[in-house]
Amino acid sequence: MSTSSTAGGGSRSALPVTLLVAACLVALAAWWIVRAGERRALDEALATYAGTPLPSADTPIDPALADLGATVFDARCAGCHALRGDEKLAPNLAGITLARDPAWLRAMILRPDSMTRDDPVARALLQTYGVQMQVAGGIDETATRAVMEFLRRADGG
Ligand code: HEC
Predict the structure, then answer these.
(1) Residue 40 CA to ligand 1 centre (angstroms)
(2) What is the pLDDT of residues 15-60, one digit of tens each?
(3) If you measure from the C-alpha of residue 3 to the centroid of ligand 1, how many angstroms do you get, rounded to a whole number?
(4) Cα–Cα distance between 48 and 145 in angstroms, integer?
(5) Domain residue spans in the chain?
(6) Which of the listed residues 106, 133, 149 should we mutate to test ligand 1's pocket, taking the one with most ligand atoms within 8 A of CB?
(7) Is the CB of 19 under 6 A from ligand 1?
(8) Which of 5-9, 54-58, 78-82 has the highest mean pLDDT?
(9) Ligand 1 pocket residue status of 100, Cβ below 6 Å
(10) Hey, what CATH class is 63-154 in?
(11) How far is 68 from 103, CA to CA, in rounded Å?
(12) Above 80 in pLDDT, residue 6?
């Protein structure tokens, strides 16, 4: 008697759980579609900057490229690096474009593993921070250039 009423209660509560799981799956799919669209839009906008040369001291900031770089920074760098406020697990990047030259920065962002192996400055940073920098999924030349423009603007040009 008591066994069958327990079983009945169990199946009555299965419907809301199923609905909840279905709602979560729909929300997840919607989130994924929006994110994929944003990523595609970013990639298309970045593609128009392919081949942009490294900046020199007298290259004016390109605000649109710096805006794209801000999106790249938030998505791919900000988990480890702060630009202001407290340091996260990696060096604070405020002032970095004044401290390092563009070719060094480009190499550090594109190939951090060979830099911490071969470059004495990067090797010393690895010793200090104890974590090997890694950009999840890698980063390409144009996204690197964009994030450098963002950092340049953050440093006041
Ligand atoms: C997983 C964490 C992590 C991510 C993500 C990451 N970094 Fe780093 N980064 C580090 C660490 C740690 C160092 C110090 C060197 C080392 O230990 O490898 C560093 C060093 C640097 C340096 C040299 C800093 C200096 O003082 O000279 C630059 C520039 C830099 N990162 C830029 C970036 C940019 C731009 C991105 C995003 C595209 C990025 N990093 C993503 C962890 C990270």
Answers:
(1) 25
(2) 889 999 999 999 999 999 999 888 899 999 999 999 999 999 889 9
(3) 60
(4) 12
(5) 2-47, 63-154
(6) 133
(7) no
(8) 78-82
(9) yes
(10) mainly alpha
(11) 20
(12) no
Nearest CA to ligand 1 atom 40: 77
Residue closest via CA to ligand 1's atom 2 equals: 80
The more confident residue out of 10 and 105 is 105
Taking CA atoms only, the protein residue closest to ligand 1 atom 8 is 133
Question: CB neighbours of 81 closer than 8 A, spacing ≥ 6?
Answer: 73, 88, 90, 91, 92, 93
CA of residue 22 to ligand 1 center, whole Å? 40
Question: What's the pTM?
Answer: 0.86
Per-residue model confidence as pLDDT tens digits over 106-116: 999 999 999 99
The contacts found for 126-134 with CB under 8 angstroms, 24 or more apart, are: 129/89, 129/90, 129/91, 131/80, 131/89, 131/90, 133/80, 133/90, 133/108
Amino acid sitting at position 49: Y
